[in-house]
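Quick review question:
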């Protein structure tokens, strides 16, 4: 969709912001700048991903802006980011969905997992990521153009096809998370949509 419904182009993240470093059990062990966390092979840090569905069951996906260091102009799930130091995950997910999408939604934690993925020779993600689901209406979406180049709603079957297309520019965490949601947690999504 065009960004004619866009929210203000407010900068909401920077390479200097401090991310929460964690061990394999998600215990906090310090902080490091976002830029340094994504250098080389990446440094393990806490993150989150949000999957927002509309009332008909379509998933909101976004195309990352071209200015992103890692995976620019790739399609990703509704929202993904990092909690700030001293911020709990519930606060972080609500803050970021509002900053990035202009949406306030109740979110449910589903699962967490660790992954590492390299982007060319520009750096890597190495995250312990908490995955959440929620609902929103298409009319509520007001994307921040400093974060999002494009957005759309896709049916689950359309998302399946996108994820299955290995040549498509899809962020690696989106592929992993969607496959796991479909494999092990789809009943939770259906409960959300039918609740």
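Suggested answer, residue by residue:
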């Amino acid at each position: 969709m065009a960004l004619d419904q866009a929210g203000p182009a407010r900068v909401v993240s920077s390479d200097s912001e401090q991310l929460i470093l964690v061990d394999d059990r998600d215990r906090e062990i310090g902080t490091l700048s976002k830029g340094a966390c994504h250098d080389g092979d990446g440094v393990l840090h806490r993150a989150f991903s949000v999957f927002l569905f509309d009332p008909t069951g379509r998933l909101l996906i976004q195309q990352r802006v071209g200015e992103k260091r890692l995976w620019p102009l790739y399609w990703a799930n509704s929202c993904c980011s990092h909690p700030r130091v001293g911020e709990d995950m519930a606060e972080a997910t609500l803050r970021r969905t509002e900053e990035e999408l202009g949406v306030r939604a109740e979110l449910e934690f589903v699962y967490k997992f660790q992954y590492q993925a390299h982007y060319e020779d520009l750096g890597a993600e190495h995250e312990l990521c908490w995955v959440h689901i929620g609902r929103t209406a298409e009319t509520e979406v007001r994307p921040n153009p400093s974060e999002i180049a494009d957005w759309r709603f896709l049916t689950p079957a359309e998302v399946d096809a996108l994820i299955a297309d290995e040549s498509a520019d899809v962020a690696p965490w989106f592929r992993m998370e969607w496959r796991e949601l479909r494999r092990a947690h789809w009943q939770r999504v259906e409960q959300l949509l039918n609740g």
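Why it works: The chain is about 25% helix and 35% strand. Helices lie at 34-37, 89-101, 156-164, 172-184, 186-194.
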